[in-house]
Amino acid sequence: MGRSWTNWATTAPPIQIRDIHVSPEQARLIIQIPRPILFTSELPDFDQRLLQCLPSLRSTICHNEDGLSFADELRATEMGHVVEHMVLALLTEQGIYAKGTTEWDWFTEPEGSFTITLFGRGFDPPTVTLAVAGALRVLEPLLPVTSSNELQLR
Questions:
Q1: How many other C-beta atoms lie within 10 A of the C-beta of residue 51?
Q2: Helix, strand, or coil here: 2?
Q3: CB count in 10 Å sphere of residue 141
Q4: Is 86 in contact with 77 (CB distance < 8 Å)?
Q5: Separation of alpha carbons 80 and 75, rounded Å
Q6: pLDDT tens per residue across span 9-52
């Protein structure tokens, strides 16, 4: 279910792109994600709903302390990490193979600010920008609609 016209008028997009910089071998993206959608564990069945929308995430590699696949990591991870893997999956569909990192420091940056850095070859601004936009287009309908006083799952 999409947003109603009323929701479009009263709610901001859940994820904001604060900065994007692309060079041939690296892309850096800074995004802002509001509470309460910072962690996938706070959203019931989010992992399964996302995997239905973007099945290629099941086969993405994730380097983490517990050795979990990304599909398993998706149950309890930061939303910035989700965006990283979605962008990587969409770039792979375009024949661009890359790896990435997601970092945050909410002592020096606003809560919900994530820096995603992608490393690879053949990056160009239009392709990376379209992959980011595609990731957000898939992701945002799965997120709660927020306004000043309410939180509703779609």
A1: 15
A2: coil
A3: 13
A4: no
A5: 14
A6: 344 457 899 999 999 999 999 999 987 788 999 898 999 999 99
Number of Cβ atoms within 10 Å of the Cβ of 48: 12
| DSSP 3-state of 71 | helix
Question: CATH class for domain 14-141?
Answer: alpha beta
29: alpha, beta or left? (left if phi > 0; alpha if psi -120 to 50): beta
pLDDT tens-digit profile of 125-149?
A: 999 999 999 999 999 999 887 654 4
pLDDT of residue 67: 87
Read off the tokens for 16.
């904001």
Q: CA 24, CA 127: separation in Å to the nearest integer? A: 11
The sign of the torsion formed by the CA atoms of 89, 48, 136, 77 equals negative
Domain boundaries, the chain: 14-141
